[in-house]
Design a protein that fits this description.
Order of helices and strands: EEHHH
Radius of gyration: 19 Å
Number of strands: 2
Structural class: mainly alpha
Number of helices: 3
Oligomer: single chain
Strand content: 5-15%
Largest sheet: 2 strands, antiparallel
Strand order of the largest sheet: 1-2
Helix content: 40-55%
Length: 76
């Protein structure tokens, strides 16, 4: 199936080729919100966000880190 979604990991030489038949049948070519797509731009953004968080946490002292941990645990 032809697909121009350049952000999808399944896109190989402008063709959509997911591993499973079910994913192939659910695929909507030429769309960013294709149900079968694996978005590499989302993954790249996740790694950028992770690196920013690590950088910010490395600049904190133990007291601040404890407060951050308490806050994160309270959000669960």
């Amino acid at each position: 199936m032809e697909c121009n979604n350049q952000y999808c990991y399944w896109n190989y030489e402008m063709h959509c080729c997911p591993e499973s038949e079910e994913a192939y049948n659910n695929a909507v070519p030429d769309t960013l919100d294709c149900t079968s797509s694996l978005r590499k731009d989302f993954e790249e953004q996740l790694y950028i966000l992770y690196d920013e968080c690590v950088e910010l946490l490395n600049k904190r002292n133990i007291k601040e880190l404890r407060e951050i941990k308490k806050f994160i645990e309270s959000q669960r």
